Amino acid sequence: MTQLPTRQFHVIVLRHLMGYETKHIARFMGLDVRTVDYHGRKGKERLRVQLGLPSNASRTKNKKGARQ
To answer: What is the average pLDDT across 22-37?
Structure first.
């Protein structure tokens, strides 16, 4: 997590570790709610890649394939 860009790090920590809502994070950081969502998505994606986890698309394909 420490390798994330500053804004992405703060959004991930505030949202997922501290449990703050997006609107509170936006107010605290002086950003628009949509910008907070963007940094949250990008931060989660960077963490997924760093941890070597499959993408959502891969998981969706695997789930669909398992049902058939």
So the answer is: 98
27 confidence band (pLDDT: 50, 70, 90): very high
HSE of 24 in the Cβ direction (CA atoms, 13 Å)?
7
* 28 or 56, which is more confident: 28
**Which parts of the chain fold into alpha helices (H)?**
6-12, 22-29, 33-51, 56-67
Closest CA to 21 of 33, 35, 39, 7: 33
Q: State which H helix or E strand residue 17 sits in.
A: none
**What is the distance between the alpha carbons of residues 62 and 50, in angstroms, rounded to a whole number?**
21
